[in-house]
Amino acid sequence: MFNIILFGPPGSGKGTQSERLIAKYQLKHLSTGDLLRSEIAAKTPLGLEAKSVMDKGQLVPDEVVIGMISSALDHNPQTKGFLFDGFPRTASQSEALDKLLKLKHSEINVMLSLEVSEEELVKRLLNRGLTSGRSDDTSEEVVSARIAEYHKKTSVVADYYKNFNKVVSIKGEGTVDEIFNALSDEIDKRLS
Ligand code: ADP
Fold it and tell me: Strands 110-115 and 28-31: what pairing?
């Protein structure tokens, strides 16, 4: 398996680039944000609990997202690899992911980290809020809270993978095609 973490702050373009990358490399897309939004749409108890946390811009408890990822890994035994998007988002999530992959005799091959300025992030998120129907994109307060959570809890995830020399930074500003090509180049290098 070839497993990628697409990393970056909220609004850095992970969702857009993930769609293209999974099509090109035939990977299974695992977005914890999408999985949580499906739970909300289905009005499950987990979804109802997660919604109140997400609407405040805070992170859902580790055990909830780790459980979702663990079951997704078990349900896709035949995949060529996974593209993790929005996960791991805390140090404990990283450790849990490594353990789960080890059980499958696999590992993270690379973390691709999208770098975008704070000003651009806020602009993109509020802009997306106009059309996405995502309640966490409409208020500047919630958007700022999400970016603050990123600095407080998520940016350390990159340090964790840096220790294993697995992180590559990619400029996340430019056209969607330019960024996609830069990401693809890094993946191709490691696949060949
Ligand atoms: P964005 O990258 O734009 O913040 P996501 O769809 O990845 O969007 O996440 C939306 C929200 O879902 C987050 O603000 C958080 O509340 C919750 N969430 C998603 N992934 C995780 C995770 N791995 N751990 C904890 N909470 C998560």
Answer: unpaired
